[in-house]
């Protein structure tokens, strides 16, 4: 996919929210697209939207011969519109993410990271407009504790299968994965649903009974 199309989809996602996208995916038959509720925004930039760049990490017992090798390769390979989505198997032994990785990603236009791991350098990340979604904070370095072992593979993260080329949207409600096969339709229907919900909200604010509103619009 051309970079411009990738960024176009990412920008379109910014105008949506996870709940409405999850509803649309339900109607399209994709009913298991929301990540585990323990994966939350860890930085002030509490929304993430973009194309998935998938990675898988494992817990290790010793320092690898080439520590950080694939982690650095992932950052070097990503570009504008990408979001690193990394399965770290809910590891809480270290801070898998940090300030320097964030700085490199910001320069490249990467839109965020979603991971089943902890971050560190929270004191610095709070001042950077870069979304980090994960499961907590930890001061220990990832070297000799976790290491990326695979890039661009199909992974399962937070109970959801995804791969590079899918799309991800995260906000206060949580994180949802949009399969690449239905991204165009999902975006179109989601924007239509947002418009419909705005109409219903106005009707309810003006006193329409909610049963009447649902009968008329089919939205709740």
The CATH topology: Glucose Oxidase, domain 1
Proportion of helical residues? 25-40%
The end-to-end span amounts to 35 Å
- Classified by CATH, the class is Alpha Beta
N-to-C SSE series?
HHEEHEEHEEHEEEEEEEHH
- How many strands in all? 13
How many separate helices?
7
What would you say the CATH architecture is?
3-Layer(bba) Sandwich
**What count of structural domains?**
1
Radius of gyration from the alpha-carbon trace, in angstroms? 19 Å
- Which structural class do you get from the secondary structure elements? alpha/beta
The biggest beta sheet is recorded as: 8 strands, mixed
In CATH, the homologous superfamily goes by the name: Ribonuclease E inhibitor RraA/RraA-like
Rounded mean pLDDT is 94
Low-confidence stretches: none
Strand residues, percent? 25-35%
Task: Give the overall shape, derived from the CA principal axes.
Answer: elongated
């Amino acid at each position: 996919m051309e970079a411009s199309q990738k960024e176009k989809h990412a920008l379109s996602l910014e105008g949506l929210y996870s709940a409405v996208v999850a509803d649309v995916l339900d109607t399209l038959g994709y009913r298991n697209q929301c990540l585990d509720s323990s994966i939350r925004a860890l930085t002030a930039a509490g929304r993430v939207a973009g194309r998935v760049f998938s990675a898988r990490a494992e817990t290790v017992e010793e320092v690898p011969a080439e520590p950080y090798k694939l982690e650095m390769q992932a950052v070097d390979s990503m570009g504008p519109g990408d979001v690193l989505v990394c399965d770290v198997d809910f590891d809480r032994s270290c801070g898998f993410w940090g300030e320097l990785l964030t700085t490199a990603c910001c320069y490249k236009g990467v839109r965020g990271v979603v991971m089943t791991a902890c971050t560190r350098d929270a004191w610095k990340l709070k001042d950077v407009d870069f979304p980090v979604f994960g499961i907590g904070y930890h001061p220990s370095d990832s070297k000799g504790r976790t290491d990326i072992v695979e890039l661009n593979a199909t992974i399962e993260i937070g109970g959801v299968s995804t791969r590079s080329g899918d799309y991800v949207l995260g906000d206060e409600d949580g994180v949802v994965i949009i399969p690449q096969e239905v991204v165009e339709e999902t975006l179109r229907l989601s924007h239509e649903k947002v418009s419909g919900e705005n109409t219903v909200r106005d009707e309810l604010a003006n006193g329409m009974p909610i049963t009447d509103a649902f009968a008329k619009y089919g939205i709740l």
